[in-house]
Write a structure and sequence with these properties.
Helices cover about 35% and strands about 25% of the residues. It contains six helices and twelve strands. The strands form three sheets. A five-stranded mixed sheet has the order 1-2-4-3-12. A four-stranded mixed sheet has the order 5-6-8-7, covered by helices on one side. It has a three-stranded mixed sheet with strand order 9-11-10, with helices on one face. A hairpin with a 4-residue loop joins strand 3 and strand 4 (about 30-35).
Length: about 230
């Protein structure tokens, strides 16, 4: 689908709602739409979102992108919003990650390749997140009148979190391990609010403003990764 100078990748799926995404690194636009919607209906929807699309493209294209990680000595990595230098130690023992004041120490066996190093570090991030998330959920269940039955951590390209309302399960993006803790907390609250209101409508925003008035400050910190618009 083409609207002026904007090309849109259209995918029809067995879903209930339209999902519009603007993706880095170049601001590609993608719409996932329910099977029953006509192309003309989707086109009209896209036209109504043109201003939002252009705003997100401008934001993405103006951002500096982090270079691809090679998982080598003195490379910069982040944890909970702080910058650390990676140190590699080759040892004949099981892999592990140790956090120090200024360093992330990665202990690996000799000849561990780049993808294996990444998996080891990502597993450490995942374990750290699994330790943090339950306490946040429990804390906010005392504030928000909902009950979360389960949560999971996974890598996501276009979302910081998702909520399976029927299962009452929230999913958190693994990349949040690198962000300040208040950003992780914001996404948890955001997904928990979806248990009160499915869509990002005025009712949803009213709940968010009530429970976490400063949420917009936290959202700004997260605008460096893919952005999406849900309907």
């Amino acid at each position: 689908m083409v609207l002026g100078d904007i090309k849109i990748e259209l995918v029809k799926k067995d879903i209930k709602n339209v999902h519009l995404s603007v993706l880095p690194p170049h601001g590609e636009v993608r719409i996932a739409a329910p099977l029953h919607l006509s192309e003309e209906t989707i086109r009209l929807y896209a036209i109504s979102k043109l201003l939002w699309i252009r705003q997100q493209q401008k934001k993405i294209r103006s951002q500096e992108r982090e270079s691809k990680r090679e998982f080598i000595n003195k490379e910069t990595h982040y944890f909970q919003g702080r910058k650390y230098l990676l140190r590699i130690f080759e040892v004949d023992e099981p892999a592990k990650v140790v956090l120090n004041k200024k360093h992330l120490d990665l202990y690996i066996r000799p000849n561990t390749n780049t993808s294996q190093r990444q998996r080891i570090l990502n597993q450490w991030y995942r374990n750290e997140m699994k330790e943090l998330v339950p306490a946040y959920i429990k804390r906010w269940e005392r504030v928000i009148p909902v009950k979360v039955h389960d949560f999971g951590i996974k890598q996501m390209k276009t979302k910081w979190g998702t909520c399976n309302i029927e299962a009452r399960r929230i999913w958190i993006n693994l990349e949040l391990a690198k962000k300040p803790l208040q950003c992780l907390e914001y996404i948890i609250v955001h997904e928990m609010v979806h248990l009160l209101e499915r869509r990002h409508n005025d009712r949803f925003m009213a709940y968010l403003n009530k429970f976490m008035p400063q949420w917009k400050d936290y959202k700004e910190e997260l605008n460096r990764l893919p952005v999406s618009h849900w309907d």
